[in-house]
Every structure is written in structure tokens, then in C-alpha cells.
């Protein structure tokens, strides 16, 4: 039996996202509640009102179900709304800390912002605007060493709220004997067709040791001028396991995602 001390207990949640697509009013924007419309206008994704809670509450509850006891939310300098929301929660299973990313310099930079809070502890890294299946989070938390969750593309199309054309643009994961060989970002339509429906894709759900911080410092900005966590993963000195993942991943990137995410999470209990 695996000792509980071997399980990862900390999660870093990237919650700063600028929400450019969310702020852009779309044809379905009129279906939002007044609270949702106000959050969308500010670009809030993680703090989007969903039922009686906020989107991030559901994600944090799932992390707690997976055995996580501490969450570090990476936010921007103006994070009063996050602080106010966290202070309003009755926390029984989690402690929640904020880490400030001074400038929006990419996902690897966001992870570096969490280093003072995380220290030498292993941790999960997930997106604040996604809701992940419990089994995927639990598998990552129980894995020792670096790992990423690889979701089968066809299953994501069938089970998630994400349109197939958006999923086709997600990073492809190529593995051999359970270990990562390559991550192909923004694959061309030809590469997507060649990979097939059962290809694995990354939904930015990782398990890391503290080695990831040094890897984040070794990389240079990508062509779009950001420090990308994918480049840091490539810079890790040791192997990265690919854990096959099943279940629906919910994504809230645009206003038109809100109704579907709210319907999927209706009745889901939140326990923090």
C-alpha cells in the first residue's frame, strides 16, 4: 500500500488569464445572467458565477476530492476580487494561497510566480478555467515524478463541452512506453488527421517536482513573446510520464461556453 506521504498534496492553479475572448461580446451573450455578464465584461473566467458558486470553486473541490490539501492560485497584481471571494469561503478541506504574477509573461512565468509558496514540494499544475475529471487529477496526484494527463481526442469531442474544431487545435501528445516523446503545439490539419481520433492531447494538467522551476528559468520566450510551460517541460532533465486520462474536461474560454458548463456542473456538490 502506498504511503499517504507519497501523494502530492499541493496544486498550482493558473487563474490569471486575461480573458480576451471572454470580454468580447458574442451572439450568445444575451443569455447570461447579470452577474455572469459583469464577470464576462471583466474577463473573469475562474471567477465566473456558475450556479451557486464560481467556476474555480468546482475545480478546487475536485482537487480536494483527489487528495489535494493546499491550492496556490496564480493571479495578477489586481486580485482584490479573488481575495474577497476566497475570504468568503468556508474552507474545511483546503488552504488557499495567492501568488502574484507581476506581468502576463506566459504559463511558465506563472509557475515561477508560485515557487516561493510551493518551495520543494511536488505539485499539480492545472488551469483555473478548466474543470478536470477526478480520476485524472487523482492519477496525477498519486504519480511520483513528472507527468501530464493525456486525453484521447475523440473522447474529448464526445464527452466535453469543447467544439471539435477547438480540440483539433490543442497540443498533441506523442508517447512511447508511457513516456513523453513530443508535444506538438497548434498541429496543422494534416498532422491532426494523420494522428487519428485516438491521439492524445494535453489539457494543461501536469504533475511536477520542484525541478520544473529551474527548467522554467532555462527557457527563452516563444515566438509570441511568452515563457511557455510546454517549453519548460521539454527542458526537464528527466523523463515525463504520460498518464492516459478519461472523462470530460469542461472549458470556459468564451461567453458561449458558460451555459454548457453551467448545465454540466448543475447538481455537482462543492466541498472546500
List keywords for this structure.
13 strands, 272 residues, 9-stranded mixed sheet, two-stranded antiparallel sheet, alpha/beta
Structure overview:
There is one protein chain. The protein has 272 residues and is an alpha/beta fold. It is built from 13 helices and 13 strands. It has helices at residues 20-23, 34-42, 55-65, 80-88, 107-113, 115-118, 134-142, 153-159, 164-167, 189-195, 211-218, 229-234, 258-265, and strands spanning 10-14, 49-50, 53-54, 70-75, 95-100, 123-127, 130-131, 147-152, 172-176, 179-184, 200-208, 241-245, 250-251. The radius of gyration is 18 Å and the shape is globular. The model has no long low-confidence stretch (mean pLDDT 91).
Radius of gyration: 18 Å
The number of helical segments is 13
Please state the overall shape, judged from the principal axes of the Cα atoms: globular
Sequence of secondary-structure elements = EHHEEHEHEHHEEHEHHEEHEHHEEH
Report the strand count: 13
Give the mean pLDDT: 91
What structural class is derived from the secondary structure elements?
Answer: alpha/beta
Largest sheet: 9 strands, mixed
Uncertain residue ranges: none
Helix content: 25-40%
Give the end-to-end Cα distance, rounded to a whole number of Å.
27 Å
Strand content: 15-25%
